[in-house]
């Protein structure tokens, strides 16, 4: 069967192709067993033994469908439906396989398995596209083990150097370099692609991670863009002292300085407007002893806003507040992530909406409040995202859930959006 014939059949009123919904769901549930938690969630962190096991499963599925797995120096996994021109820029679709420590069964992994299901469906039809159509699983999107996140897509896009990525260490002192080398050693026969090869287009399917689609009774979200994000490490340095002998006026209490700073940040930064998202998500107190005045507090700040000018202003104000309110201690603010808001390709947004209409699924435009690897692909090539609802908007939690019908609908939309690339100019 030629690609042209495939496109005609997929477009025909009586011949619309669909993915195998049962196979897609079964594979999602199979991967959910790798790193399964007692509460029904998943702990499959980046470059862990669990992620290596998920790679083995994905590669087995790929090979059984006649697809071609490969990787790159940043630990991104690629699975290709081979095209007629192997040298032409391929079309990519995917997301990530890693999870939060107490994450759910769908965040990230849905986009990867949906892309694999589309390729498996096309391969089963005997389709050979003009260019490679590639499923991708990006390395360390979550940033829970190695910070910051999105390391694989950032290295691919040239946003962060591979050397900088490899130098990062986790809480146990293990470097990304060592973990990456262990990953590659587990798959010695896997072909290596060059890091950052040209891409014709990128589409990422994902659960919404918010309540809007469910509340609006829409199955497909046509993602217009991703709000901007900044993250910071803040270290407040004071002086250790005896809790029973050191007078209050003589103390350089890092935790007391933190309470002043945190109160001001929540009021001024978090209260700036209804669109801002401000979070202190990690806190470490040293020495963390009951009768010792704290000498150091380390915190991680997550700041988001859809307006880049506002985001920049708030980031500068945040640093100023930390500096001015720390005395008699000292505060240092280290920027980690600086990701401006971005928009997605209008033509691909239209294709997603039309695909949803064609298969009878209600849809709406929606801004992504969470960050995704698609952020880093958007400057490289036409890029877009497809959202499906998640129950109560819950994500990054063990009870994260997506309905099987919605899971299938998103994959069927992805299939239709990719068909023009399969169909030689169709």
Notable characteristics:
426 residues, 13 helices, Alpha-Beta Plaits, 35% helix, alpha/beta, Aminopeptidase, 2 domains, 22% strand, disordered N terminus
Structure commentary:
By secondary structure, this protein is an alpha/beta fold. It has helices spanning 3-11, 21-32, 49-64, 109-124, 151-157, 162-167, 176-185, 212-216, 254-269, 308-325, 346-358, 374-377, 404-422, and strands at residues 68-71, 77-81, 91-96, 133-138, 191-192, 201-207, 220-226, 228-237, 241-242, 277-286, 292-293, 296-305, 330-339, 342-343, 363-368, 383-388. Strands 1, 2, 3, 4, 5, 6, 7, 14, 15 and 16 form a ten-stranded mixed β-sheet that branches. The chain has a four-stranded antiparallel β-sheet with strand order 10-12-8-13, covered by helices on one side. Helix 1 packs across helix 13 (404-422), helix 2 packs across helix 4 (109-124) and helix 4 packs across helix 13 (404-422). The longest helix has 19 residues, at 404-422. The radius of gyration is 23 Å and the shape is globular. The model is unreliable at 1-14 (pLDDT under 50).
Which second-level CATH architecture of the largest domain applies?
3-Layer(aba) Sandwich
CA radius of gyration is 23 Å
What is the CATH level 1 assignment of the largest domain?
A: Alpha Beta
CATH topology of the largest domain: Aminopeptidase
Class by SSE composition = alpha/beta
Mean pLDDT reading: 95
Tell me the series of helices and strands, N- to C-terminal: HHHEEEHEHHHEEHEEEHEEEHEEHEHEH
Shape: globular
How many β strands by DSSP? Answer: 16
């Amino acid at each position: 069967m030629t690609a042209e014939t495939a496109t005609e059949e997929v477009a025909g009123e009586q011949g619309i192709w669909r993915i195998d919904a049962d196979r897609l769901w079964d594979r999602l549930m199979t991967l959910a067993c790798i790193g399964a938690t007692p509460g029904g969630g998943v702990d499959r962190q980046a470059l862990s033994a669990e992620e290596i096991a998920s790679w083995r499963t994905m590669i087995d599925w790929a090979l059984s469908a006649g697809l071609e797995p490969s990787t790159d120096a940043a630990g991104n996994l690629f699975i290709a439906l081979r095209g007629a021109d192997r040298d032409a820029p391929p079309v990519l679709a995917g997301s990530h396989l890693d999870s939060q420590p107490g994450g759910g069964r769908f965040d990230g992994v849905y986009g990867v398995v949906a892309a694999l299901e589309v390729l498996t469906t096309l391969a089963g039809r005997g389709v050979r596209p003009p260019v490679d159509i590639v499923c991708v699983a990006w390395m360390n999107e979550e940033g829970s083990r190695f910070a910051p996140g999105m390391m694989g897509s950032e290295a691919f896009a040239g946003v962060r150097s591979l050397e900088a990525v490899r130098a990062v260490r986790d809480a146990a002192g293990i470097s990304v370099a060592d973990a990456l080398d262990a990953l590659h050693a587990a798959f010695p026969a896997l072909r290596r692609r060059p890091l950052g090869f040209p891409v014709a287009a990128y589409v990422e399917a994902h659960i919404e991670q918010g309540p809007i689609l469910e509340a609006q009774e829409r199955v497909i979200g046509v993602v217009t863009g991703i709000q901007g994000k900044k993250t910071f490490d803040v270290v407040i340095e004071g002086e250790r002292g005896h809790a029973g002998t050191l007078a209050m006026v003589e103390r350089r209490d890092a935790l007391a300085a933190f309470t002043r700073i945190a109160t001001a940040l929540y009021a001024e930064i978090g209260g700036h407007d209804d669109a801002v998202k401000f979070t202190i998500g990690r806190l470490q107190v040293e020495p963390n002893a009951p009768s010792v005045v704290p000498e150091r507090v380390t915190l991680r700040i997550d700041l988001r806003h859809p307006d880049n000018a506002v985001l920049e202003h708030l980031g500068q104000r945040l640093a100023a507040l930390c500096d001015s309110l720390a005395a008699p201690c000292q505060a240092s603010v280290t920027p980690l992530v600086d990701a401006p808001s971005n928009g997605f390709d209008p033509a691909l947004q239209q294709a997603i909406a039309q695909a949803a209409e064609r298969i009878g699924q209600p849809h709406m435009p929606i801004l992504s409040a969470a960050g995704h690897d698609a952020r880093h692909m958007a400057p490289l090539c036409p890029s877009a995202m497809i959202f499906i609802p998640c129950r109560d908007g819950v994500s990054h939690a063990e009870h994260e859930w997506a309905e099987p019908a919605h899971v299938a609908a998103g994959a069927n939309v992805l299939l239709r959006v990719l068909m023009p690339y399969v169909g030689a100019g169709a």
